[in-house]
Specification:
397 residues, Elongation Factor Tu (Ef-tu), domain 3, OB fold (Dihydrolipoamide Acetyltransferase, E2P), six-stranded antiparallel beta barrel, four-stranded antiparallel β-sheet
């Protein structure tokens, strides 16, 4: 028993030392790994866009008038030359008692003026008859040399003067008669429009075959010249407008291929960039940051029967394909880190992390093209942290 006790006490320091050494020995680090593979790689710019009718026609009133109610509804088909709206002359204003009394007084005044003009015309007619008879008498005397040539000329001039006064008096009668009609008309049509239909209408027709996109004013009423009434367009001719960051817009050129996804259909739609607008604008992001953005306009090239359910102002997700290849050696972008001016990764060989520099080509948000430094089938550590160094033992998490 004494011998066993002695051996146990003497081995205790060895056990403690072994435990301390084991505690300070480096342990393998749990990591996430990914394999270097060959598969298609695509570099894209993804933004949200919306559809838009290419040719929109905002139809407005060519003149001021009284617009009849528009019976069309949004979405109704229209044909070229079809009547969209009708304008009638403005209705007369309603007279208050004072204005009505003044209008009646103007009618009475016009009647009196007409009578005065008629009396003046009768007086002028009498003067004309006398002057004409006087000229005929003096002319006969002149032929028999009973008066001089001067007397005959004076009589002729007087006859012409009196005749001119007669014509003026007759014109004054016509003017007074028209003024009376005007005064009566103002009084007659002041309170309400006549029971008959408007004498003329301005009919506004559709310039194209399409559909009604928007009705700016549906109810009838008085409108001014240039006021918007209705908007039409052809929903079968759609384009997609997308606002992208100006830094991405410089990489997009006309002819760039586009995929429209998450628009509601079963498959993505094909598109082609038509124009990148040369003018940018400022937009505040959801985080409150001012961003310079640019409008990019693309055409849908997929067969129309695939997207016939799309309409004006529908939301789509646009992916502008800047570069793509079918067979690309690549690794997850999360495995890369900077090593001076170069890129590097940690390669796992025999459960040991090895530091290795690599040459990187094209990248998107998830993957990076490997130009040199790695081979297909090798494993790299994704999301390496400070616990990973060259020569550290690792194991799959």
């Amino acid at each position: 028993m004494q011998w066993r006790r002695t051996i146990g006490l003497s081995s205790l320091p060895l056990l403690i030392a072994a435990a301390i050494v084991y505690g300070f020995m480096p342990k393998p680090v749990a990591v996430d790994m990914a394999e270097v593979v060959r598969k298609p790689l695509r570099v894209v710019v993804e933004e949200e866009g919306r559809t838009r009718v290419i040719d929109r026609y905002q139809i407005s009133a060519p003149v001021a008038g009284y617009a009849r109610r528009i019976e069309l509804k949004v979405g109704d088909p229209v044909q070229r030359g079809q009547a969209l709206a009708a304008l009638e002359p403005l209705p007369a204003t309603v007279l208050d008692p004072r204005s009505r009394a003044q209008a009646q007084a103007r009618v009475s005044s016009a009647k009196a003026a007409l009578k005065a003009a008629q009396e003046n015309a009768r007086a002028a007619q009498a003067s004309h008859d006398f002057a004409r008879a006087e000229y005929a008498r003096i002319h006969e005397l002149y032929k028999s040399q009973g008066v001089s040539k001067t007397e005959e000329d004076k009589a002729a001039a007087e006859a012409r003067r009196v005749y001119a006064n007669l014509r003026s008096a007759k014109f004054a009668v016509e003017v007074a008669r028209h003024e009376l009609e005007a005064a009566k008309t103002a009084l007659q049509f002041s309170a309400e429009r006549g029971k008959k239909a408007a004498p003329e209408q301005v009919v506004i027709s559709s310039p194209i075959d399409g559909s009604v996109l928007k009705i700016n004013r549906e109810s009838e009423g008085v409108i001014g010249m240039g006021q918007d009434l209705i908007e039409v367009g052809d929903p079968r001719a759609l384009e997609v407008v997308v606002d992208v960051l100006s830094a991405d817009a410089v990489r997009i050129v006309p002819g760039t291929r586009v995929l429209f996804e998450r628009w509601g259909g079963a498959q993505a739609l094909e598109g082609v960039v038509r124009v990148v607008e040369p003018v940018g604008f400022t937009k505040v992001s959801a985080l409150g940051v001012d961003e310079q953005r640019v409008w990019v306009v693309a055409d849908i090239v997929s067969p129309p029967e695939q997207w016939q359910r799309l309409g004006d102002g529908y939301r789509v997700e646009a992916s502008f394909i800047l570069w793509e290849q079918d067979d690309v050696l690549q690794i997850p972008a999360s495995s890369l880190f900077r090593d001076g001016d170069a890129w590097a990764v940690f390669v796992v060989s025999d459960d040991t992390a090895l530091h290795k520099r690599v040459d990187i080509g094209r990248r998107n948000g998830l993957s990076a093209q490997v130009l040199s430094g790695l081979g297909e089938g090798e494993r790299v550590i994704t999301h390496p942290d400070d616990s990973i160094a060259d020569g550290v033992d690792v194991y799959q998490r």
